[in-house]
């Protein structure tokens, strides 16, 4: 039995977002949507997080940062790209500084479209991410590589 | 030594070691639900802290260096030892000193990672310890003057409630409890909220199983601290005393939600002023009356 | 008695030999061999006399009396000679010497001689002190052999006066044995002044302007104490035989308050100056410019212990009196203030100095109260502090030579670069403040003793004072255990001499903690029993718990060795902006910045100047009250 689905902690990172999707993510924490009901906690520390919630697209400046944050997250982990900018670059896709969606840098597991993505969609996306998380955990259990801390 | 007494002590101590994580986890869950209700939210299930720790144990934790996790294991071991000493009726002063050892190990673990957030967290942790230590020792001194002994088994069985003799000391003790429970406005080194201005403070660089142990150690510690509060009301009988203890805890939750985090300067100053006024005056009054 | 005389006189042999023989290797071996001899003699002395009550020895000879007087004059003349180098504002120092010598001469010739029957004595407390001097003192001498070699290597501009260095070190050991074995107050006073002289010479060793000025300040403040001491002797001598006055320590202590209170207060004042209590703390801080073995020997383990030793000796006389309470208050206020002051220091030796003064303050507070509990706690404090502090000072000395700095901020990563030294420092620091280590036990006993004093002012001072000690020790430990990414093990090692001393002292610290019930029963209890017919009983349960804790702590290094090495390593969290692992990050404007970490020294929060001023004023008032009480009809 995996506890991962019962207690997914998220790391919320803003790539180059206009903050529209970020506000919607934070709205999920408010009493109206209250994602803490599902055990979701917004931790600002990759080492404590299971779900990497990214908004906004990837540009030259944040490529190494996104990679570093992803590396510092312990396994098993999922990446949820929130908003169309994180999926593909959105309306800024053709800008000179925008490289594209998050999947240009790190593997993405769930795409949540929208501009801005609605809280219900974000929650739905995270819940689908939990399913992926469970699968990854099952795979991880079967191949013990390094000793965990 | 009387074997009956020894058995009783072992029973209490062992009971603490086995049951305190359960009680502490439920307490943490209860805390989160009450907090959520105060914020017009619904809150997580009651067993959420157990799910959290379970999840942490299922993660492949990472480290910055090879030593850091050992300190957390020591922290846990010493907190367990401290609680066992307290609940088996041992010496109150030894309990306080053993708790200090545990706190120092925690700070050392954060220091060893050599990371900015951890180091600031560790500095603040030590400042917090410096802030509450006088009041904690004054509480012990006050309890000794009122109850005549440092042994917890004697203190818990006195006939007159300690709260009658030590009202001001109790208020001072509640003040520093806010610091020890890591609640606003004094949750400087590692808040139990999602995150804070120094990310997660002392626990920033810990992950996976070690972080789970850190959580469990806090459960042990919280039960120990509630035990301290219980001592003040012990003479009213177990039911009333437990109710009063829970009431004190709810007051702490309320303070947590009502205040924002303050600076370490304020924490140290305020704690020492509280200790110097409430604590010292109460002590001198009792000493005078005796 | 032969053992006592041996301990008193033998150290003079290596002193003279070291001063004559210039050859380094032979000189080194003289130090090592004579240190071993002195240590063995101390053990033998302990084995003979431990657990027994007070044993008195008579040693009468007019030649010795004349010799002691001549020696006192020699000391005074030497100091006056040295006073050629004073500045204008230090005029009071030669004045003090002259006044002191004048009173000494007057005592010697102006009154009928008070017959001293037993000039030497030994009891359990003296045995403990003799062991401290004989073992810790000699270990420090062995350490100095290599240390001084490195010292002069690092300071080529200084004159190599190692011969006089070792001469003074061994002379000092001899004088210290005199302080703890002398029953004749005049002999005690001579040894007391010799220790002042040794301290003065040693602090001035670097011969820099700063060192010389600090040496003179130390001399002056210690002479103040000496003046008080000589006035006490004058008081006793002037009363003559009819007033039942006596120059014998044991008779004085047995004589009770009517006879002994005035000399007790005066000699306690001398003890206060010698142990650098407030308001006289500045000399000890200034003394940190001396080479580290000097700081370890004189200014933490031994000479300053002589100051508290004499106050503890007079504790039965001070007990229950207003003057005694004032002495205790001086100690308590000093403890609180210097603990706060230590938080603001990043110079390792200054931290150690302030912490020494703080611990001595606790001992003085215990002695001023004078109940059996407090004396028990005081002796325990003395033992543990002597061992731990010596270890820490020697550790800092070696670290300073290896990394080139005595600033705590430069000791980061020591646990990887120099694991042995780091372990030694950690043992020393843990020994200073953490359960189940010794100082904690002593503090515990002290708190329990203070609580029974009404009003519990001292207990409150202890409660407030022990909080900052936690802060500055843990902060230092944190710096030592931090593991920077690029830390590598250093190639060179400390020398054999230094490791002998460091290793043995570390073992002693741990052993003293583990065996403290034995120590208490064997050495401290007989002393308190002889004075009060009562002693402190430690509950068995607590001892067991502390042994368990000690056991866990001892397993810790094992845990470090065995812990799984295959771990998933990631850099530390720098908001994802890591550039070179945990070392650098991308800062504002795209600039690569290095991660720099510093401890908090609370400089904006605690002002060294303000705290010192407040405590000097407070303690001056208390000391004034202490002396004023002597003139009151009922003290």
List the helices and strands and how they pair.
The complex is a heterotrimer of chains A (149), B (290) and C (635).
Chain A: E1 9-14, H1 20-28, E2 41-42, E3 51-55, E4 58-59, H2 63-72, E5 78-82, H3 84-88, E6 98-100, E7 110-112, H4 119-142
Chain B: H1 3-38, H2 48-58, H3 68-87, H4 92-112, H5 116-147, H6 152-155, H7 162-165, H8 167-180, H9 208-233, H10 238-258, H11 264-289
Helix pairs in contact in B: 1-3, 1-9, 1-10, 2-9, 3-4, 3-9, 4-5, 5-8, 5-11, 8-9, 8-11, 9-10
Chain C: H1 2-9, H2 12-20, H3 24-49, E1 55-57, H4 62-82, H5 92-110, E2 120-122, H6 124-154, H7 162-181, H8 185-203, H9 209-239, H10 249-255, H11 257-274, H12 282-286, H13 292-301, H14 303-313, H15 315-318, H16 322-343, H17 348-369, H18 372-403, H19 414-417, H20 419-433, H21 438-451, H22 457-481, H23 496-514, H24 516-532, H25 540-562, E3 578-580, E4 584-586, E5 592-594, H26 608-631
Antiparallel strand pairs in C: 1-2, 3-4, 4-5
Helix pairs in contact in C: 1-3, 1-7, 2-7, 3-6, 4-5, 4-8, 5-9, 6-7, 6-13, 6-18, 6-23, 6-24, 7-8, 8-9, 9-11, 11-14, 11-26, 13-18, 14-17, 16-17, 16-22, 16-26, 17-18, 17-22, 18-20, 18-21, 18-23, 18-24, 20-22, 20-23, 21-22
Q: β content of chain A, as a range?
A: 15-25%
The CATH architecture category of chain A equals: 3-Layer(aba) Sandwich
Q: How many whole angstroms does the radius of gyration of chain A measure?
A: 15 Å
Q: Which H/E pattern describes the elements of chain B?
A: HHHHHHHHHHH
Mean pLDDT of chain B: 91
| Count of separate DSSP helical elements of chain A | 4
Oligomer status: heterotrimer
* Number of contiguous helices of chain B: 11
Total domains of chain A: 1
Number of strands of chain A: 7
Separation of the first and last Cα atoms of chain B: 32 Å
Task: Please give the CATH class of chain A.
Answer: Alpha Beta
What can you see in these coordinates?
The complex is a heterotrimer of chains A (149), B (290) and C (635). By secondary structure, chain A is α/β, with parallel strands linked by helices. Chain A contains 4 helices and 7 strands; from the N terminus they run βαβββαβαββα. Chain A has helices at 20-28, 63-72, 84-88, 119-142, and strands spanning 9-14, 41-42, 51-55, 58-59, 78-82, 98-100, 110-112. With 290 residues, chain B is an all-alpha fold. Chain B has one domain (3-289). Chain B is built from 11 helices and no strands. In chain B, α2 runs antiparallel to α9 (208-233) and α8 (167-180) runs antiparallel to α11 (264-289). Chain C has 635 residues and is mostly helical. Chain C has a domain at 319-559 and 614-635. In chain C, 72% of the residues lie in helices and 2% in strands. Chain C has 26 helices and 5 strands. Chain C has helices at 2-9, 12-20, 24-49, 62-82, 92-110, 124-154, 162-181, 185-203, 209-239, 249-255, 257-274, 282-286, 292-301, 303-313, 315-318, 322-343, 348-369, 372-403, 414-417, 419-433, 438-451, 457-481, 496-514, 516-532, 540-562, 608-631; strands at residues 55-57, 120-122, 578-580, 584-586, 592-594. The radius of gyration of chain C is 25 Å and the shape is globular. The model of chain C has no long low-confidence stretch (mean pLDDT 87). The interface between B and C is large, with 68 and 61 residues.
